[in-house]
Amino acid sequence: MGTVKKCIADVVALLGVAAILSVVTFATSGDIPVGEMAYQRLWLGRMAFVFVVCSLPSLCLNGKQRLSFSSIVTWVLIVLGGIEVVWGLRQIYGLAVSNHSLYALTGSFYNPGPYSGYLSMIFPLCLHEWLNLKERTERTWAEQGKYYVTLGVMLLILCVLPAGMSRSAWIAAAISGTWVYGMHASWGSKLKEFGRKYKKRVVLACIVGGSIVVMIGYALFQLKATSANGRLFMWKVSTLAIAESPVIGHGTGNFVSAYGRAQEDYFANREYSETEELVAGSPEYAFNEYLQVAVEYGIPFLLVVSLVIGFCLWKGSSEGRIGLCGSVISVLVFAFSSYPMQIPGFAVTFYFLLAACVIGRSKIILLFFMSMMVLLGAYYWKNNQYDACKSWHRGKMLYNIGAYRSAKEDYEKLYPELANRGAFLFEYGYSLHKLKEYDNSTRILEEAMTHSNDPMILNIIGKNYQASGDYEKAEEYLIRSTHRLPGRIYPYYLLAKLYAEPKYRQPEKLKYAAEIVLTKEPKVQSTAVREMREEVKKLLK
After folding, report:
1. Residues 90 and 70 grouped into a single domain
2. From CA 414, how far away is CA 391, in angstroms rounded?
3. How far apart are CA 490 and CA 28, in angstroms?
4. All residues at 6 or more sequence positions from 22 whose CB lies less than 8 Å from its CB, including other chains
5. Same structural domain, 45 and 107
6. For residue 227, what are the contacts with CB-CB under 8 A and spacing of at least 6?
């Protein structure tokens, strides 16, 4: 009877882990835009409580459960990885629709980057379990099934991963997979022994290996050079933002505003290259989780987080949880040039990996982790903003067709709930601008600047001040816009119109701004650029 109870408790615990980790596979509902995380946050909040409730029977029973927490997490993730990789294959062959108009392969994600990162995280788990099972000469029918499942998922990941075109995921899978295989093959002790016998050969091997790594790195860089240069520039600007407040950071969710100010200051100094001007943008993330944490919370907090992760890796490897440690390593490598922690389901999966490295069969640590999940679930449930986003999506239709008065009425009601969203605040502020409520528009757009680094916010504020007759303020904000993204033609066009105002006419400045509009090469030729140039020519006459 006791054995039956323990089996039931293990099955229930497995279902609880599966419930919360499977949230990452939830596609967004049709009520809100694809890629909006409010839907995922809502379900994470709910599933966190399901996980806690399902884990309670294991805690209540005396003795050790048949399945450890680490085993449960491992096999749930392998199954989810199998679901994701089949999902991706169906998208490749046109049997399923992707979640992004520009990419055929996204899995359940919005972008192929995080999707590929998720698969690279599953790969070392599959590799470890397969190697373990492969070493057994006599396998039970259950072990035989596990053997083929892990082998199948691993091979499918290797088939799909190249199609994602994510260099970060490739590197993450390669490094984590090599580490897992090296741990199984005892490379550490073998290398030490080889080093003692052949010191000169070791030096030569290091030189050759280093050269190969450099060549591979260069090839991967050149594969998508523009994208790589963009990442390098984002990291550069992020470090400048960190330098402004290195100890306490800029605060939770303030990356975009801190980044925007840092980029604006950088370009204002006019010591930048043409490549930097070309690749500069308005990113929501640093595309480097370590820099993102340092910008928002400061360097000391980053060091504390790094120590915690390091402890989890040490504990996991010392307890023989090689696959889980490999997955953690994969995420850490992937996080160096992507944004997995900005996706709630991906972030929670990472937390479970760290917990699985430490918990094992320990009920005390499991209880602590469950308490943390309760707090996280409560936060996600309370702050999911799903209903507000649904209403925003409906109001956005009015905004897109130019029904600004109706849109304003909807946005007015949603403002208390969505006041921390830059895109919402911009649309609200722009609607007010179009309705000629310039003071209110400026007030809302000033708030938007604390949640967004989009230079269009500066442009509209400048237009508000110009319409109100405050030409100096208008000039200030438009010049800031040219510094925020110097590659854009539009703010120079607005400056030219400002300098052509009869009450603020400045011929020399007008000539300078007009020359930039007429000569600057846009990223993409468009009708809008041609129309701006035609209008500027008329202003010069």
Report:
1. yes
2. 8
3. 34
4. 47, 76, 80
5. yes
6. none
Nearest to 305 by CA among 360, 265, 351: 351
Show the tokens assigned to 450.
């604390």
Q: Residue written as tokens 């029904």? A: 403
Radius of gyration of the chain (CA): 27
The answer to whether residues 124 and 235 belong to one domain is no
- For residues 178 and 57, membership in a common domain is answered with yes
pLDDT digits (tens, 9 = 90+) for 425-444: 999 999 999 999 999 999 99
pLDDT score, position 482: 92
pLDDT in tens, 203-239: 666 677 667 767 766 666 566 667 778 889 999 999 9
Number of domains in the chain: 3
Place of tokens 């479970």: 352
| CA–CA separation, 117 and 346 (whole Å) | 9
Do the Cβ atoms of 268 and 285 come closer than 8 Å? no
Q: Record the pTM.
A: 0.89
Residue 205 located in a structural domain: no
Q: With respect to residue 210, please indicate whether it lies within any of the assigned structural domains.
A: no
Decide: residue 288, CB within 10 A, 0-12 exposed, 13-18 middle, 19+ buried: buried
- CA dist., res. 244 & res. 369, Å (int): 35
Determine whether 301 is exposed, middle or buried from the number of CB atoms within 10 Å of its CB (0-12, 13-18, 19+): middle
Instruction: State the residue range of the domain holding 363.
Output: 2-184+338-382
Distances (CA, A) of 512 to 141, 319, 519, 535: 78, 68, 11, 15
Q: Is residue 202 part of a domain?
A: no
Let me know whether 118 and 252 are in one domain.
Answer: no
Do 169 and 130 share a domain, yes or no? yes
One domain for residues 360 and 410: no
